[in-house]
Amino acid sequence: MHLTLHSDYALRVLLYLRLRGENKSTIQEIADAYAISKNHLMKVVQQLAALGYVSASRGRNGGLVLAKQAEDVNLGRVVEQMEPHLNLVECFDMTVNTCPIALCCDLKTVLTEAQQSFLTTLARYTLADLGTRPERLRKLLQIAPASQPGQT
């Protein structure tokens, strides 16, 4: 199974914001940290905001922060929402299928089971399960330590 860059970047954005804590981040900061396209990241962040994972504010003091607690961000759900479809092979979508054996092929059953296992595994984890080495991740991404509630 191969996730689109859209899903990959979404997971990276969420991890980055988790590492930043209450400190706001910009799309440019995140793009620079991961060396990825700012334009593509803008689309990802828009969708994450629309889905309620990210809170985005504009203006001088604007920026991005997580809109949910890390424990409430299920990785399987994020992937399912960010992927345009989860069709492993063309016969998963009979409207575009051209495979002549699709109606009697057992491969689709096996691939469906494998896909479900993949999604079931992702669903067992939340954003809180990622980043078990936050200081190392912050160093790699050049992120200052997150401020704690009540600190300035």
List keywords for this structure.
Arc Repressor Mutant, subunit A; 6 helices; two-stranded antiparallel sheet; mainly alpha; disordered C terminus; 152 residues
Report on the structure:
The protein is mainly alpha-helical and 152 residues long. It has a domain at 5-83 and 127-141: Arc Repressor Mutant, subunit A (Orthogonal Bundle). The chain is 46% helix and 5% strand. The protein has helices at 5-20, 27-34, 38-50, 75-82, 107-123, 134-141, and strands spanning 54-57, 63-66. It has a two-stranded antiparallel ribbon with strand order 1-2.
CATH class of the domain at 5-83 and 127-141: Mainly Alpha
- End-to-end distance: 43 Å
Going by CATH, what is the homologous superfamily of the domain at 5-83 and 127-141?
Winged helix-like DNA-binding domain superfamily/Winged helix DNA-binding domain
Structural class: mainly alpha
The helix/strand order is: HHHEEHHH
Cα radius of gyration in angstroms: 18 Å
Parts with pLDDT < 50 across at least 5 consecutive residues: 148-152
Give the SSE map.
Elements: H1 5-20, H2 27-34, H3 38-50, E1 54-57, E2 63-66, H4 75-82, H5 107-123, H6 134-141
Antiparallel strand pairs: 1-2
Summarize the model shown.
The chain has six helices and two strands. It is mainly α. It is elongated, with a radius of gyration of 18 Å.
